[in-house]
Each structure stands twice: as structure tokens, then as C-alpha cells.
Automatic annotation (TrEMBL):
Region (Disordered): 226-255
UniProt organism field: Brassica oleracea var. oleracea
Listed name of the protein: glutaminase
Active site per database record: 78, 202, 204
Gene Ontology MF: a single term: lyase activity
Gene Ontology biological-process entries: pyridoxal phosphate biosynthetic process; pyridoxine metabolic process
Length: 255
């Protein structure tokens, strides 16, 4: 299986390296015709406005939208999440073009500026049930977005609790609860809708490849479902590297 990784800007090399650790080939995608050579796609983290301008310059948006519409698996991390969202707020003046397909609203810089980037352990019960390993995942949030609301067909995979006084935006679907006299907001940071997967954090910047393995198995299941030739059996994509020591960028913990 060959996976395309959009290589306009951002952490595409890190995604390709993570795929390599799983024994999967990743191909850099910069032109529309290259999308015809891959069966799934990763849109990496980076600077979403810059990525959008480069995608527009290379006339990639029509091809990316068609790729999504055909039902091929696509995973967006951080800026990639913004690309896949149907709706975005908190954008720069003039906004930016989106690929769309994911029925959700995203806040582009929900957690603040670059200096407010952080790491945090997030609960990932679905990932753990599918891939094993620890019950939490070390999320790397760099000038990160967040999902504000989702449509009925969107499955929420992970939340992150944020003090309500640090929330930049609120909506009717953001859950607020009172615990020990402190208000917290459970912010959505990972979602899945049919062929689309999106995370607000950067799994490619850790040594834990469970999210990459999850995406590969998701793609394999969809391929098998389309061909109706495997009887629903999931084929392994290689050893999942979930070491006890994970690569942790030197950035502060969000509190």
C-alpha cells in the first residue's frame, strides 16, 4: 500500500518517516496528477494559510476535493484538519480556501499563538482498543486548532479538557461542566467521518505510531469493503512501534 503525503509545506517528512517505521511507503504529493498514483492521503501539519496559498497556486484544490469525494481515505493533522473541515473560524483577514468534506466547524488557532504550544496526555479509548498500548496518547499541540461542533455522522475520537476562561470561542455543542468549582470545556481534538480522519495534534512528531497504524487499517478496511473480497479480515500493516519512551519536542505543558 502506498500513501500520498501532501508535501507543500509542514511536517510531511515526519509523516513519511512514521509510515516507513510501519513498513509502508509514503510518496510526496505536490501535483494534482500525482494523486492518481495513491489510494490514500495524509495532509500534514504546518501553516494552514501558506499551505492553502501553495495549493491554490498549484491548482490542487479541485483534485483534493475530488479525492475526498471518491471516498478514498484522507487523514489531516493540525493544518490538515483545517483543510478538511467544511467550516472554519478564527482565520486571517480574507480567509482561506478549504478542501472540505468533514462536517464540522474548526477554530484555526483555538489554543492560541505559537508560544502557547504545548504537550499533553489525552485519553484515546478508541485508539487503545484498536491498537493496544497506553490508555493515553502524548498529543503535541503546536498553534493548534480545535473542533467546535460536529455533524451527526462525525465520530468524536478524543477530547481535551481546557479551563473555560482560556477558551477563545464557544458553541452550543462544546461541553462545559463544573468540577470542584472550576469550569472546564471538553474540546474535541480528534474525529472521524467515513473516509476522513482528523487530529488537532501532531502524531508524526512522536515515536508512537498508533495513529498511523490506525489510519492504515482504516484504509485497508475501506479497500476490502469496496472489493468485497476479504470477508472483513484486517490485514496487518507491520509492527506498531509504541515504545515507552516517545519523542517529546521541548515545548511547555498547557495548563
Amino acid at each position: 500500500m502506498t500513501v500520498g503525503v501532501l508535501a507543500l509545506q509542514g511536517s510531511f517528512n515526519e509523516h513519511i518517516a512514521a509510515l516507513r517505521r510501519l513498513g509502508v511507503q509514503g510518496i510526496e504529493i505536490r501535483k494534482a496528477e500525482q494523486l492518481l498514483t495513491v489510494s490514500s492521503l495524509i495532509i500534514p501539519g504546518g501553516e494552514s494559510t501558506t499551505m492553502a496559498k501553495l495549493a491554490e497556486y498549484h491548482n490542487l484544490f479541485p483534485a483534493l476535493r475530488e479525492f475526498v469525494k471518491t471516498g478514498k481515505p484522507v487523514w489531516g493533522t493540525c493544518a490538515g484538519l483545517i483543510f478538511l473541515a467544511d467550516r472554519a473560524v478564527g482565520q486571517k483577514e480574507g480567509g482561506q480556501e478549504l478542501v472540505g468534506g468533514l462536517d464540522c466547524t474548526v477554530h484555526r488557532n483555538f489554543f492560541g499563538s505559537q508560544i502557547q504550544s504545548f504537550e499533553a496526555d489525552i485519553s484515546v479509548p478508541i485508539l487503545t482498543s484498536k491498537e493496544g498500548g497506553p490508555e493515553t496518547y502524548r498529543g503535541v499541540f503546536i498553534r493548534a486548532p480545535a473542533v467546535l461542533d460536529v455533524g451527526p455522522d462525525v465520530e468524536v475520537l478524543a477530547h481535551y479538557p481546557v479551563p473555560s476562561n482560556k477558551v477563545l470561542y464557544s458553541s452550543s455543542t462544546v461541553q462545559i461542566q463544573e468540577e470542584d468549582a472550576l469550569l472546564e470545556t471538553n474540546v474535541i481534538v480528534a474525529v472521524k467521518q467515513r473516509n476522513l480522519l482528523a487530529t488537532a495534534f501532531h502524531p508524526e512528531l512522536t515515536a508512537d505510531t498508533r495513529w498511523h497504524s490506525y489510519f492504515m487499517k482504516m484504509a485497508k478496511e475501506m479497500e476490502q469493503g469496496a472489493s468485497s473480497s476479504s470477508g472483513g479480515t484486517i490485514v496487518s500493516v507491520g509492527e506498531t512501534s509504541v515504545g515507552t519512551e516517545q519523542a517529546k519536542p521541548d515545548i511547555p505543558i498547557y495548563q
